[in-house]
Amino acid sequence: MQKELTEGLDLLELGCHGSMELVARGNAAPAVLPLKTVPVGLPPVLARTQDELEGFLSQPQCLNIHDLRRSQKYIARERRPERLFHSDVCPVQTTIVVERNPATGELLGYKEECLSDSSKTSRNSLSLHRMPGPSYTDLRGSSTNYPFWPGGMDEPVLDKLEDREGDSAAINLDTELLTAAPGLADGMTFDTGAADPKPPPPPESNTAPDVINLADILADTDDLDLGDSDEEEAEQKKKDKENNKESGAVTQLGKSESLENLVQVKEDQTTTEVTKKKTEEKKESWAVKVDVNSPVTEFYKRVPNMAYKWPFEPDVFQKQAILHLEKHESVFVAAHTSAGKTVVAEYAIALSLKHMTKTVYTSPIKALSNQKFRDFKTTFGDVGLITGDVQINTTASCLIMTTEILRSMLYNGSDTIRDLEWVIFDEVHYINDSERGVVWEEVLIMLPQHVNIILLSATVPNHMEFADWVGRTKRKPMYVISTAKRPVPLEHFLYTGNSNKTSTELFLLVDAKGSFLTTGYSKAVAAKKERASQSSQSFGAKGTRGGNPSQDKNVWLSVIEMLKKKDKLPMVAFTFSKRRIEDNINNLQSVDLTTQAEKSEIHIFFHRCIQRLKGNDRQLPQVLHMEQVLKRGLGVHHSGILPILKEVVEMLFQRGMVKILFATETFAMGVNMPARTVVFDSTRKHDGTCMRNLSAGEYIQMAGRAGRRGLDTTGTVIILCKGDVPETSELHKMMLGKPTTLESQFRLTNTMILNLLRVEQLRVEDMIRRSFSEFHTQREEVNHRKAMEELKGHMSKVKDIECYLCSVDLERYYKACKDYQELKQRLQEVVLSHPAAIKALSAGRVVVIDNSRHSNVLGAVLQSSLGSNNTRIFTVLILANRGDNLAAGEITPSDNHRVKPVKMRQLFIPEGVCWHGVVEVKAADIAVITTKTIKLEADKIVKDVKKREQPRFRDDPPSQSVTMVTQELLRLSEQNPEGLSGLDPTKDLHLRDIDLVEQFRSLQFMQEEFGQFQCVNCPKFDEHFSQISSNMGLKEEYRRLQFLLSDQSLQLLPEYQQRVEMLTRLHYVDAQGSVQLKGRVACEISNHEVMITELVFDNVLTDLHPADIAALLSSMVFEQKNCSAPELTDTLKQGMEKILQKAEEIGRVQKEVGMKIPVGDYKESFHFNLMEVVFEWARGMPFAEITSLTDVQEGIIVRCIQRLYELLRDVRNAARIIGDPTLFKKMEEAMSIIKRDIVFAASLYTQ
């Protein structure tokens, strides 16, 4: 065959350059090879190549590089500046609308209508009516898009802009306009000359003026009327003069302090958001409690055509939820575990399919998203999944995603939001998570108004409060539906056995009705004590509180044997240590709970699942070990397990093949995999900082996995008492205590601030104000506004004090008194908490008492003690008039908030017969600690006074010890009517704080200045001071309400200002708050955005190999602190040093602006211990080999690389924004080299 092919082909030379081509041989005689297309050479008219080369070599001056005329040619270019201009095509201004008969639907005709939103796009508008963006941004949106207007906020309407107080009135269009553009140093100077700023008088004519000044229109808040005659204007002026006379001397106050001027305050943008309608609405809760105790009447008549039907009859709470969903109302379903909350979500999805809209189902963790995708895909079919690295059927009617992805879609203005009808938030109690809880609040605030909300949660104590916050924020009622009890009740037991002989030691602690049985606890304690005493007699004491780890094997063997006998399998064993889980599995090598048929089914299923892995990955030690464990009916589920193996375990557990599952508490997070029994290895866990008992919420969440609806009558929960039996109070609090309340974890992040700053219409202050942390302030906003309106009415009736002495400086005197009183009280608290002052206030010290009951009264200290809240209480014998009702032990109320005039007051001297009394006072009531002391017998005085309070001894004379002290106090008062000198803080009390000394000097100067005021000479001074005090109280109350309604009252406002200052210094925003290029890049990055942006702009990553880039960026996503140190290359060491150096710079800036993040803590947030693993993985090393480079478990490595892939994608998008093609290509390459093999194996739930 080869011979035949070679005999039928010839070589043909093409041209004169030696290139050959195979051609078919013809019938002619064989020619001499090779054949030529130019057999006689080139025509003689062309120069030979050899001759040209010889000419260049012999005469180099002939080369073109020396010909200036040919090499430096100038081509004239026609100037056309219009080519620099770009103008979009004008959008269509009108549309054709069909006219139909509303009754019959008959087509009547067509008409053309104007489009008001034709010029709005995703780059300039937040309206839902704006033009859609490009199709490739439909799902994720773009960082250049505006988000849609959040529901619950008032959209700015052009007609209402003039009504905003402060916009037109605060700006003088003649004098306060800017002359320089923002960001520029110089601008335009307008020479106004010496023109009179007053407008010329209007012409004397009845005709309307031809030109109207816009500033005059905007400055006037009343309706504009140009038709008034001169006579009407004169009458109006007379009325105005009469009104001014009636107002009295109010206008005589200074402009800054006038009550009328104070009323006309500038309101914040946030204070104008509440419309007039809202201020007039009655106070009501936005959360509506739905009754689920009574059956739903005529349910199928009210919902004749259900969107989805189940093979079972829905419960009452499910029917109530369906009724509200049919009305397009938002619901909050707080039901017990396994009650059937998913039914509500399924009906919402079915409604969206019926209405041809979309539903988004959000979950806190990726694993739960995958499981829900499989469940809903089986039920509905048209379901999509969006995670960090997987996108399946993104145009589906039901999209399942994590909450972080939905937040990104909202900020980036995804057009998918337009079609949303429902957003389902599963596991809402996850909002308590300190790291990710803020995401839930952001999403709830940013959702547009047309989107309805479904909240699914376990039972929480404050579900009404949380629903009220959501309803108030979105301005729509939230219907709260909760269940009263579990469908499958739980029974809680204590297990004290540790062998087959003692496997019957199972004691009921809480029965199915929820009653705590102390007899069961007593029996458990007795059984534990009996075994401990026998053990100590034979072998010595061995019992410890946490149990002996060497005996764990016997305990588990006995528990398993007991559960097998009672038919209580399958079982979930919650263990709070991954190492202990592995130890338990290794100790139970002898346990085999499956039949041969089940082993065969497990073998087939397991190998079918791992077929998608490569050959090397199938031989991983963890894969081989898991197969052997599963065949014995055991399972392991924790974060260190490979994701695909965790899914295999979950699926086998659902099939009933896994009888005993050892898991951490993450297994209880929303995974619908109930068991018959739940066993707690311990009731204590390490939360990252310390060992503590399980909270009631944690215990209920995990214990709720017990009891399968429809299969078990009760669920069994067992606590292993390996060591001592836990205390009764701890068990009662854990089992029957209230679940964890929903608490706000809202915090400011740089990404949130930058995303909101790039949109002028949205403010960060509005986001803070609407957070759950500010809920109580937001709820009282209407009341505060009503109180302000009432204050305006009171303040309008206030008249000034008509006094020639007090009108001069009475107001200044009041302010001075207030400042003096506040400073004195503050210093008094500091002094009286000093050890020297407490020592000085011992028995016998003479003091001056001044409060609402006793004014400038001399007394002697008898004793001191600590009261409630560690406040020190002093028992003092004071002078009094006979007949004053002073009971011993009475604590006189202090009146430190009322401003009192500071003037020279004489010490109190009793009228008539000198008497005494014993009172208890606080430190703030002691005005002066004098230098005098009196010898006294405190115990005898107290006993004598208490004795004479009894009716039968009331007329007895006081004892000699009381009389001596009383006479001495009276003598001191009469000899020193102006007062006694007090202890000097520096000399006597030895206070050395410079600030305190300066404040004491200031207090002394303020006291000396009170003699310079003229108002104290007024004969009616007390009356006038009381009047000014009342007037100033109104002002201060108005200022307080104004403060509560302003942004200044927000708790996170100082941190926001600090973060903005930090971003300004690092050039992410400019001085005007506009987001710069670095800020736009940071918006693309979801993790450590500031650090990564700095690395990108410093070109740290551009010159590195993609494998080095991936290794360095792994420090941003790896979170484990304690693991083996890596062996790094020189390039990676240099990169690590640059990251730490940049972290030092950023940390210093954060410290300078006042942020409470220590530089060391910020540097420690980057973990470099997995860099070697990622580097070798990027270079192609098999997964089986990289596990030997570190002691980090396989599952954590996989999760880290998956998160790294998402981060690399963010940096790739950032490179596209700044126009760096080199970095863009390297990030693409880095993404491709790490996305392989077992790390990115497809989820079993998506297949």
Automatic annotation (TrEMBL):
Q: Which residues form the Helicase ATP-binding domain?
A: 322-478
The biased composition feature labelled Acidic residues covers 223-234
Record GO terms (molecular function): ATP binding; hydrolase activity; RNA binding; RNA helicase activity
The record's GO CC annotations read: Ski complex
List the keywords (alphabetical). Answer: ATP-binding, Cytoplasm, Helicase, Hydrolase, Nucleotide-binding, RNA-binding
Bias (Basic and acidic residues) occurs at: 235-245
Matches recorded under Gene3D superfamilies? 1.10.3380.30, 1.20.1500.20, P-loop containing nucleotide triphosphate hydrolases (3.40.50.300)
A Gene Ontology biological process in which this protein takes part is:
nuclear-transcribed mRNA catabolic process, 3'-5' exonucleolytic nonsense-mediated decay
Q: What subcellular locations does the record give?
A: Cytoplasm
Catalysed reaction per UniProt? Answer: ATP + H2O = ADP + phosphate + H(+)
**Sorted alphabetically, which PROSITE patterns does this protein's record hold?**
HELICASE_ATP_BIND_1, HELICASE_CTER
Which Pfam family would be a valid example here? DSHCT
Instruction: Domain (Helicase C-terminal): give its ranges.
Output: 580-757
- Region Disordered, as annotated, extends over 185-209, 223-256
**Identification of the protein by name:** Helicase SKI2W
Q: Which organism is it from?
A: Littorina saxatilis
Give the organism's phylogenetic lineage. Answer: Eukaryota, Metazoa, Spiralia, Lophotrochozoa, Mollusca
